[in-house]
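Worked example 2:
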Amino acid sequence: MKTADPPVQQALYAKHEKIYPRQAHGRYAKLRVASLLLLLGTFYGMPLLRWDGHQAVLFDLPARKFYIFGLTLWPQDFVYLAGLLIVAALSLFFFTALAGRIWCGYACPQTVWTEAYIWIERKIEGSRSQQMKRDKAPWSWDKLRIKTVKQILWLSFSLWTGFTFVGFFTPIDELAGKFVAFNLGPWETFWIFFYGFATYGNAGWMREQVCEYMCPYARFQSAMFDTDTLVVAYDDLRGEPRGSRKRSADKADAGLGDCVDCTLCYQVCPTGIDIRDGLQYECIACSACIDVCDGVMDKLGYDRGLIRYSTENAIQNKPSKILRPRIIVYAIILAIATTTLFYNLSQRIALDLDVIRDRNQLYRETNEGLIENVYTLKILNMDESPHLFLLSVEGITGLELLTDVDSIYVKAGTVSELIVRLRADEANLDKQSASVSFTLQAQDANHLIAEEEARFLGPRK
């Protein structure tokens, strides 16, 4: 009787192995550093700027005010947020179709903060080889000391990040005073630690796993790529067959291509891929492999560009077009959306008028035989200064406007309610429901004017 083969066990998921990216030097590395300093400087420095007596960028949720330099937005202005998100999405489509994952390599928050954490790690633990050697060694006092210092710096940087994030919602000077006095509110404390923990976990520990498994952009980017999209690519026609050789050796005599199989392009990759295997969704287009490969080519006296920004067609020596219908259409739509958004913002009026007709009764007849409707007006002054307003109404011949106040004064950034009565002669009503138009205008600012339509009800005709 034949004995059954023993069962074979196989893990469905491979154990994660830490990636130790080697430091790259070159023009793209300098560009990444410049981008990192610009973006981090903007994030940490923006809450410190002042504008017209308030924080330059502040999202004041309790007051429902959103300050963006000289612009003050209210919940009624959320349509502009929708427009901004549309412009951002179109920009992503445009730049991805044009130059691949350039956003991921230079501007994505995950990339930016990961670069910052890797920089701290290198300053404390040393180069790639030193880190790998230390992690393989048994625990010692020196290893514990270095690891502890790194974690303290990582945690401190994370808390600073969380503190700055909350500083966009609570004035940073007020938040700092509460922090020093140990008087932070529960929500402020929660978000400081939550955002700090997210930064610490994503940039310090998870790193490339966020790009590979959590980020949806890596999954749907292929829908925006085509054979004429600029990507980081390895020229296999020029590089193969790869193989090591002496610097003085003639590659033609050895039957080799330009690639010396040094694996430096793999060692500098922050996501741990080998670009020579072709375009992969894990590639974030950071261009570190281009810098390190160009350095090797310079030492060997070969032409640069074995790994370079190129298109799939160009790599295969086929005609390639950067400006193509997809790019042109994206550019036109993006230009229209951006122009529309900024035009509407420039024409925005910091005044809102809402008219609500009294629904308790359709209308009432006065002693003089006039038809009267009652309305509640809600006036929102979104300007930074108080104003005295003038109210008028039209739409029916001989329409009379009655209010309980002599003047309409609304403080800056407040909502004021006003009860008004409209009276009209029944003879001037052509039908049961007529349209009337309220106009509200600031007496000291001609540009602050708002109009709102309402219905005036009378007897059935």
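The longest strand covers residues 445-457. The mean pLDDT is 91.
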